[in-house]
Amino acid sequence: MTTITSWVETGPDTDFSIYNIPFGIFKKQDGYTGAGSAIGNYVIDLHYLHSQFFFEGLGLPDDIFRRPALNDFIALGKTTTGAVRQRLIKLFTAGNHQLSDHEEHRQGCLVPMPEVEMLMPVQVPNYTDFYSSIEHATNVGTMFRDPDNALLPNWKHLPVGYHGRASSIIPSGRPIQRPCGQTKTPEAAAPVFGPTKRLDFELEMAFITGKENGLGNRITTAAAEDYIFGFVLFNDWSARDIQVWEYVPLGPFLAKSFASSISPWIVTLEALEPFRVAGPPQDPLPLPYLQIDGHQNFDINLEVGIQPEGSTEQVVSRSNFKYMYWNICQQLAHHTVNGCNIQVGDMYASGTISGPTPGSYGSMLELAWKGTKPIAMPDGSTRSFINDGDTVTLRGYAEKEGIRVGFGEVRTKVLPAAE
Ligand code: CA
């Protein structure tokens, strides 16, 4: 691949290189809200560029970048959104002088990142959470059921999932309150009500759909990528003690629905092309509607840090999206094989992404092994789960042959439970 650079100073370790060009919704200090992209440490104001005719010929509505979410933009289709992204890459590549030599345009379209607040990139109609990491499913099955039969009989035949809560998905930077609910220990005669004692993160990624299939229509694994616009980092907050009491027989409910936190930039599928890798071998071979051609996993480095109040951060997990047993095409094909209609802006989380080694597990439940192996923090305290005042940050980036495409972060502080 020919290497390109941007005339915007980005540095080698930026998540937002010229190869990325993600999409998000930003709010300036003066209250202006609109769609943006990112390069280095700058937000690119897309409405400004549109108003100055830099997207001429692409057939965009005049106000497409002034709407409160990216749903309408994404719904224009991949040909159009891809052309906008390619136009941006061209404008910001070193050697192109349309913007770089024009002081007023440069000032007009580049906003320093510290001066903006990032909002939800899309309005999310529906949220589905899968359970597609074999290491995570095996760890949880080992802890709570039977080490010899950790995976339930269906697990290698279909991507297990459930319908989550879309309304409580929030962007990075917004704190959450420790949730309250019913819990019951095995020894107790009756349940009690109160703040969860086992608040946990789940290290996940989520894809966002950009095209509808219509009720009754399946999406094949071969067609699935045409429906997928891009990805965000996804922290699927979980209250383990609430979960274990409530989840039989219908699955997760209030232990999950209080909040899920996402990174605010949607990194497109196109930007992740260079990082495709083969997924783990699937044995037994899935049914024909779940079979795939080619590589549909992605090599994306992931990490989780915990920063206690008043202390420094400790990285507690390093994992990778490539470990997923079931890939995004299989997830979407399975989701629609019964005719379920998907919508623009829907989010589909991967499930906790655990790797094969203890340092790569994607939740405190696994990292501290159900509280039996607490993790040391820089301030001398230990963690089995997440404490009040802790800030949990997920980060992710892909890197290959000098090309780096990253997601930024999803950072969330945990506040005490409401009285
Ligand atoms: Ca989850």
Set out the fold topology:
Blueprint: E1 24-28, E2 33-39, E3 42-45, H1 46-51, H2 71-74, H3 78-92, H4 97-100, H5 103-109, E4 110-112, E5 116-119, E6 127-130, H6 134-144, E7 161-163, E8 169-171, E9 176-177, E10 180-183, E11 192-195, E12 199-200, E13 203-209, H7 224-227, E14 228-235, E15 238-239, H8 240-246, H9 254-257, E16 260-262, E17 267-268, E18 276-277, E19 297-298, E20 301-307, E21 314-320, H10 328-336, E22 347-349, H11 364-367, E23 375-376, E24 382-383, E25 391-400, E26 403-415
Parallel strand pairs: 6-22, 8-16, 9-26
Antiparallel strand pairs: 1-2, 1-5, 2-3, 3-4, 6-7, 10-11, 12-15, 13-14, 13-22, 14-16, 14-17, 18-19, 20-21, 20-25, 23-24, 25-26
Short characterization:
This protein has 419 residues and is an alpha+beta fold. It has helices spanning 46-51, 71-74, 78-92, 97-100, 103-109, 134-144, 224-227, 240-246, 254-257, 328-336, 364-367, and strands at residues 24-28, 33-39, 42-45, 110-112, 116-119, 127-130, 161-163, 169-171, 176-177, 180-183, 192-195, 199-200, 203-209, 228-235, 238-239, 260-262, 267-268, 276-277, 297-298, 301-307, 314-320, 347-349, 375-376, 382-383, 391-400, 403-415. Strands 6, 7, 8, 13, 14, 16, 17 and 22 form an eight-stranded mixed β-sheet that branches.
